[in-house]
Design a protein that fits this description.
Elements lengths: L6 E2 L9 E6 L7 E2 L7 E2 L3 E8 L8 E5 L8 E9 L6 E8 L5 E10 L6 E6 L14 E7 L6 E10 L4 E3 L3 E4 L22
Antiparallel strand pairs: 1-4, 2-3, 2-5, 5-6, 7-8, 8-11, 9-10, 9-12, 12-13, 12-14
């Protein structure tokens, strides 16, 4: 599964032999493996291992580690609003994460006079799962409706599948106001004993 932490590798053992390992290449010195001394890697790499009988070593096997992502997603297009009406708005943001991909976006909004934010979540790919999310640049949107009039503050937090997050800037959105009606006329405009 995808992770933003280190990965500990469990290697095979064989009675009568010592398991040895190297990380990244086979050109350095071999370390002795045990249940209390397992290789831990902090970035994507390959762990090589072999059996050693005290004099001779056999051919080595390998395991590739490719599920570590410690880089925050990138907000490629700043948070913006569109479709502003008297009762709502739509938030839009562009995201890129070339490693584990996009997992979810949590949208936050509140009236500027309110003390706390309301949140809404769009999940696209399960976090910390084995499936990567969309890795290319993508724009996501979320509409909010049935709001009271006023000015709103909004921001978004973007998460990748490994659990890294990036928060957007906070933007202000002023809902439209209902136009005051005007232009009514009454005919005739002179005094009359009839209907108008």
């Amino acid at each position: 599964t995808w992770t933003n932490g280190n990965v500990t590798v469990t290697l095979p053992t064989q009675s009568g032999y010592t398991t040895q390992y190297q990380t990244g290449s086979t050109s350095g010195s071999w370390s002795t493996y045990s249940s209390s001394k397992k290789p831990t890697v902090s970035n994507n790499t390959t762990v090589y291992y072999r059996y050693y009988d005290g004099t001779n070593a056999g051919s080595y096997g390998s395991i590739a580690i490719s599920n570590i992502d410690k880089t925050k997603p990138t907000i490629s297009t700043a948070l913006s609003s569109s479709g502003v009406t008297t009762k709502g708005f739509t938030l839009n943001i562009g995201v890129t994460d070339p490693s584990s991909g996009l997992s979810k976006i949590v949208w936050y909004y509140k009236l500027s006079t309110a003390s706390s934010y309301t949140s809404a979540t769009n999940e696209y790919t399960a976090m910390n799962g084995s499936t990567a999310g969309t890795k290319t640049a993508v724009t996501k949107s979320r509409a909010f409706d049935n709001l009271t009039s006023g000015t709103y503050n909004a921001y978004a937090v973007v998460y990748d599948v490994a659990g890294n997050s990036q928060q957007s800037e906070t933007i202000d959105i002023k809902l439209g106001t209902v136009v005051k009606p005007s232009g009514a006329t009454a005919l005739p405009t002179t005094r009359t004993n009839g209907n108008v």
